[in-house]
Specification:
Layout: E1 21-23, E2 27-28, H1 31-41, H2 45-48, H3 50-53, H4 65-80, E3 85-96, E4 105-117, E5 124-134, E6 140-151
Antiparallel strand pairs: 1-4, 2-4, 3-6, 4-5, 5-6
Length: about 160
């Protein structure tokens, strides 16, 4: 058995339905994860020093916004990894609405908002998705919309 990821999952642009929604499994954020991510990618004191973070506006350690986006990517892949994506081309209306704290349980959701065939790339379609991440209190902590290229079936 191979751990190789299929580069072209079966689900194509034609299979996406406007209005369809996905919801990931819960993911718990730990203080260790927050500090480790911040130490490598966003070394601000309220992300990587629990004691100093007490003096911040947040009053405690909080995850970097970029960390929250990376966690979204992991959760989203769980539920949308079966789509034959070419790539994302645009994010709009990106909002970090609430701080993510150690112990928070996050869930990523998405909704297909629109789609159309590409006018410049045969075999590819565009899809616009709304994405949001909620915490254990069902509060939205991160949201945005994405425009993505998705492979179409050959000959359709």
């Amino acid at each position: 058995m191979s751990d190789r990821i299929d580069p072209h999952p079966e689900r194509k642009w034609e299979d996406l339905e406007i209005g369809e929604e996905t919801r990931s499994s819960p993911l718990v954020v730990t203080a260790e994860d927050i500090v480790a991510f911040a130490g490598r990618y966003d070394p601000q004191y309220f992300h990587n020093d629990p004691e100093a973070a007490k003096e911040s506006l947040f009053g405690e350690l909080v995850a970097s916004g970029i960390h929250t986006a990376a966690l979204w990517r992991i959760m989203d892949h769980e539920v949308n990894g079966n789509i034959d994506w070419v790539c994302g081309v645009q994010w709009d209306n990106v909002r970090w609405r609430r701080a993510v704290r150690a112990g928070d349980t996050l869930v990523a959701s998405s909704r297909v908002m629109s789609k159309r065939p590409s006018q410049s790339r045969p075999g590819v379609g565009l899809a616009v998705l709304a994405h949001w991440v909620t915490n254990q209190d069902d509060e939205v902590v991160f949201s945005f919309s994405s425009t993505d290229l998705v492979y179409r079936r050959v000959g359709e």
